[in-house]
Amino acid sequence: MWHDMFVTGISYGEKTLRTILVYAAIVILLRLAGKRELAQLNTLDLSVVLLLSNVVQNAVIGNDNSLVGGVYGATVLIAVNALFVRLQAYLSQRAPRLERMLEGSPSVLIRDGKLQIKTLRRLALRPADVIASSRKQGAEHVRDVREMVIAPGGGMLIELKEEEEGADHKDVANIRADLARIQERLDMLLLGPGPGR
Q1: pTM value > 0.85
Q2: What percentage of the chain exceeds 70 in pLDDT?
Q3: Per the similarity annotation, which family is this (predicted)?
Q4: Could you tell me if 9 and 53 lie in one domain?
């Protein structure tokens, strides 16, 4: 029993190479699948993600079912991911073109209150899903949106039209000043002109 837990079935070099190659293949496949896969998971997408880990498991671990081999594979996977994230951050500052080529660029889903149907078709996004996402971010209607984009990482970013944006500190101060003037006038009407008025 102890032997099976601590003795790996394949060499650490092979396990490292297998993990790196499978990681790279999954990154490339997800990049080719597009932003939609990262933006939202419907039932079909969730099924693929759940099955994907099972499909590539043997490619990563090979003929190794040991505890040490599993922990080693997980360590390599986390280290490769950390390295890739740092490389991507470096490229975004030093080589934006290369970074854009690897990561992709944002796509406009709504512009000036109109759904960009060609973009939705290209990304295989349903208009109802985009509208629901815009509502979650504060837009009552599509016509309230100046621009909504889907970022390369799948996040949906929205910019409302100016008249639809929430109040800021200046707006609140103006409302308070207006309320104070209204209160002063009400006091004058209800109490009548007094000695100080």
Answers
A1: no
A2: 83
A3: Belongs to the UPF0702 family.
A4: yes
